[in-house]
Amino acid sequence: MTLTSHILGYPRIGDKRQSKFALEKYWKGKASKADTQAALQAVFDDNIAEQLNAGLSVITTGDFAHYDLVLTQAVAFGVLPKRFAGAEKLDTFDRQFYFARGRDHTGQLADTAAWQMTKWFDTNYHYLVPELDKNQDFSNTDFSQIFKQVADAKAIIAKRGAQNPLKVVLVGPLSFLYLSSIKTNEQAHSAGCGCGHGASADVSANDDDKLALLDKILPVYADLLAQLGEQGVEWVQLDEPILSLDLPNHWQQAFERAYNGLQRTPPKLIVASYFDTLGNNCNVAVNLPVSGIHIDITRAKSPKQYAAQVIDQLPTHKILSIGVVDGRSVWTTDQVAASDVLTAAYERLGERLWVGSGSSLLHLPVDLAHETLPSALHGKLAFAKQKLSEVALCARLATGEIAPDDTASQIKLTPLADTAKVRAGEFAERYAKQNERLNLPLLPTTTIGSFPQTDQIRKARSDWNKGVIDDAAYERAMKAEIQKAVDEQEKLGIDVLVHGEAERTDMVEYFAKYMDGFWLSANGWVQSYGTRCVRPPIVVGDISRPKAMTVDWTVYAQSLTDKPMKGMLTGPVTILNWSFAPSDAASRDVLRLQIAEAINQEVSDLQDAGIAIVQIDEPAFREGLPLKTADQAHYWQQAVAAFKHSCSIAHKDTQIHTHMCYSSFHDCLAHISAMDADVITIETARSGLQLLDAFKGNGYHNAIGPGVYDIHSPRTPSANDMQVVIDEAVKYVPVERLWINPDCGLKTRGWEETIAALANMVSMTKAVRQLYS
């Protein structure tokens, strides 16, 4: 017999990013809603068909979000913050985009601050944080999008003459509430005034208020589950990824209460955890009144032992789904290791064993068939589509129907001979020397690094890659874009300039291209948020830097202005976290320091070329933090050491900046301080000034540029809106150590809106300078 096989979710961008292009045309008014939905429908249909083609026995649906699954579910549950006045006039399709972007592209409603966006656990995927009220009413529900996916999936299955049961994916009630935010009256006012504030997703901030909503939201889940049962849905997968965290007792206790209220619903429920082991939540999970649970063994230190521990505690009538195919790795599954775990589990569970992906496959590129692989990688990589077949194959391995292939892929790494180094000098001494060298005004203005990636830039890059234009023509095109970026900054009156990064496709991919030890895919796109996609490099060996990567472009840009020009680099922590690399801590420690050494060499060359400011971006600094508290100290030590090594060569009068964004910083301010960057520019506008709030108890003693506006929203904030951030910042940071900048890089924005927003930023800065000069 072959065991039940399934996945937890699948990419919704399409194998050629069809969803991205369809939605962006729609938002620009270049496509009708009907045509846009037809394009999205085609991607959905392919996703169902691919599961059938791979031979999976249970077909997964419900996870096909147009922007983000948490956002989709919040809208379906009737979440409608009061500050989005008139949003009830929009259907749920358009309403979700209004919440996500802060702009109603239909032109009916006024711009406002978008919902907060933050990282989905330890991944580079961003989810939209539901914005709830203490008295939240979940009565205005609309489940039509979920029901349509069910009906469409059933139609595709029936057309094939198949009878595969359906499994609908929902975010479980406890995780939904835990990952939401509760607005206080003060926060609601701030967000409503359009200053860009969002609410913090930090669970400790409004813990009791969130759990108080459980009794209100459970009837909504019960109603939805009952209707799914009426539609013939056999299984519902309730994702509860917070079971992989070290949960407080009251959250653990809430699980039993929640699921006792759902156990009489018609579909059979399977509760899914992923990204780590259940840890102290194991007893809670296995004893929930549901038909089964799912565990992810791909991040376990001892996978076979972990599976055995769960089976030991699992009641004899329940199903255990074991996620053995890694939903976050592009390397093929180690069939020998998978077989070892699964055959042992099958001996004890029999037909109660299901085989699945560890997590959703949305964290992977869609289809390897679109790549031309070097011979050394043949047979070693698997993208989402190929992982479907791996799941089906592993179900056969479990029963011994087939024997495992023992050609597992392995990366051999060589640690650096030297340990991590640190920079000479204390901050106060360095900053004094830097101020003397740079002679900047109070509250210096700058941007984060990138400027709009225009159609002209993309065409020049495409023509160059295709051989339509030669190296010289491409260089001329990029220098023209750099000239434009410098000219616009000069006209705006910005104090510290950037070259705009026209030559860079992506802040990680660009550097990986010039380092040995990485392989770059041509079409390996992965969703980061909404329609934003990235192509993570793939680590294939030891990392090194054979030659300079940025010096020529930066020196050219500096030659165009008398103002300081920042050298723009991506930090070792971010390059590693945003690449497909081994997941074990030992390998990542080696790779992180190898990358740090490469960046340190680049810093050396930049300062030797006369560049006075070097920014080493670390937006993913917190992202790789292990979910279990016991594993976090080692990560922080290694991450801080890698960053400090990356700029250890810098002279005292070379100013080192870093940048961080879209994460929760309350629990890592001490480690940010330990990085000892001279200036940190950081996202604050969209996440409710949460880092500034953290200053109340911790403090930060180096210079800081709190982002004064959210660049991921197409709205243009006023100077008054931006000043709210600085008025708050001066309460905690001396004005002499404050910088003015946007939240993040500007590559996703157009030139017209970029200039308008930056003009407001400079205008605000001039006004504030008068207050403190």
TrEMBL record:
Binds 2 Zn(2+) ions per subunit. One of its GO terms (biological process) is methionine biosynthetic process. Keywords: Amino-acid biosynthesis, Metal-binding, Methionine biosynthesis, Methyltransferase, Transferase, Zinc. L-methionine binds at residues 448-450, 501, 617. The keyword Transcription does not apply. Transmembrane segments: none annotated. 5-methyltetrahydropteroyltri-L-glutamate binds at residues 20, 124, 532-533, 578. Pathway: Amino-acid biosynthesis; L-methionine biosynthesis via de novo pathway; L-methionine from L-homocysteine (MetE route): step 1/1. Its EC number is 2.1.1.14. Catalyzes the transfer of a methyl group from 5-methyltetrahydrofolate to homocysteine resulting in methionine formation. This is 5-methyltetrahydropteroyltriglutamate--homocysteine S-methyltransferase. It comes from Moraxella caviae.
